[in-house]
Design goal:
The protein is of the alpha+beta class and 151 residues long. Helix content is 31%, strand content 26%. A hairpin with an 8-residue loop joins β5 (117-118) and β6. The protein is globular.
């Protein structure tokens, strides 16, 4: 068994900065090559503390706050994201998580972290899309997003 530190959120395993014990093959063949984790060392504990402090700063404080943000997002008509596109509607660059969170903040007044956006598939065309937001471990929201050609 290997003791590792997660660098990124891994579903069904843990969040950034968590120290977990996994089987050697899982760490060596899956987590390490994808840069999802590093080996745990005594010196890495300081880095772990910094990652956990940063996570506490950016995450939504409570379930009630997350539910309030979810209700505000779902009661709205959605957001419009403006991107450069061809005449046929194909985008020059895919819509990013930062584009979505900037649109939510400017149009709905809700501040979100870009890591809350969960993509099913990349958005590379103009049109209407549904975007999943993971606001809190217990609260998820669906945002209606319209991608419009920028003139």
């Amino acid at each position: 068994m290997a003791k590792i530190v997660l660098i990124h959120n891994v579903p069904n395993l843990g969040e950034v900065g968590d120290v977990v014990t996994v089987k050697d093959g899982y760490a060596r063949n899956y987590l390490f090559p994808r840069n999802l984790a590093t080996k745990w060392t005594a010196g890495a504990q300081k880095q772990i503390d910094l990652m956990q402090a940063a996570r506490r700063k950016r995450e939504i404080a409570s379930v009630e706050d997350a539910r309030a943000i979810r209700d505000a997002i779902q009661s709205s008509h959605g957001v419009r994201v403006f991107k450069k596109a061809t005449a046929t509607g194909r985008l020059f660059a895919a819509v990013s998580s930062a584009d979505v969170t900037d649109a939510v903040q400017s149009q709905l007044g809700q501040k979100l972290d870009r890591r809350t956006v969960v993509w099913q598939t990349p958005v590379k065309t103009t049109g209407d899309f549904k975007v999943k937001l993971h606001l809190h471990p217990e609260v998820e929201a669906t945002l209606n997003m319209t991608v419009v050609r920028e003139r």
